[in-house]
Amino acid sequence: MQEVTRKRSLEVDRIKGIPVRTYGRRHAKKLKGSRASAMEDVLPQVKISLPEGDDFIDPKSFFNFPVKEIWFEIGFGGGEHLLHQAVNNPDVGFIGCEPFINGVSSLCVGIRGKNVKNIRVWPDDARMLMDRFAPQSLDRLFLLHPDPWPKNRHHKRRFLQTEILDQLAQLLKPDALFRMATDHQELAVWLLKKMYFHSTFEWCAASADDWRKPPPDCPETRYGQKGLEQGRPPVYFSFRRI
User: Which CATH number does 10-241 carry?
Assistant: First the structure.
């Protein structure tokens, strides 16, 4: 889900019996030290397990304490943004999806270090989880630095497709915020077009600074920093579900 530089692999998952192709690497370096131990200690406590069947699930049920809202991050990378949001919003339930195990391990280290209780993790393709969410069960959505898949023949691999956006429109509550970020110029145009011309979303920008500058509560991640160092400042798009 997140932008990667290593060789990508292809795995095939299934959603309701329909083959779903998951593009992107699952593993890189072998986990050692704190990352390995955090995966053993933390992931079993925060990993989401889906009940059998096709019934819709209220994502609040993944938490063993009351949460006032559900915020959902697709492709959390190293987990810096997800961890920051969870620490600063302890009454919100956070669900993060990331198939790259090394990224999951990084988040687990952060969860253990900060003793965070309001994060649940789906270490796989986000679409598999979205398919089970009840309609209008999400209060906020983040898609930060998704893989741009720059070659034309790979554009179909980009996460934000029209059919995915249709599904997200069903899952988000009215007035829910959908925030995106990318440092890839062509992908930025793609994201903006997909969102702007979708009838159920409204762009929140009132001035250029609204997309040139990060939102006040958005921390800098290693993906954003990488873009800045290479002369590609990120852009930020915020849309509301109408």
Answer: 3.40.50.150
